[in-house]
Fold this sequence. Notes:
The chain is α+β, with helices and mostly antiparallel strands.
Amino acid sequence: MIDETTFRHESDQALESLKQSLFRAEEEGGFETDEKNGVLNVLFEDGAAKFVFTPNTPVRQVWISALSTSYKLEWSEAAHAFALPKTGEDLRTLTERLLREQLNDPGITLT
């Protein structure tokens, strides 16, 4: 497990990068991104769903609540990224997949 200082630095960077990617993707429509107190929210235009991205310092994970599921990403030193242990998807790749599923739009990309 990485130390708390490293976790805070890496999670802040990862979530900031994701936030910027989400802002760029908003132009394609269907959702809006908002950040408050270190928590990143993706709100969908239909009002039926919301994704929540939260750093969880005590367990050194980034948590995503989306599609009625909780995803717990752990730091991967090899990938130098937060990744879902079950699939190996990093934060951006997983978020992109979840957005595609929620919006039923395979063309959504996060850059």
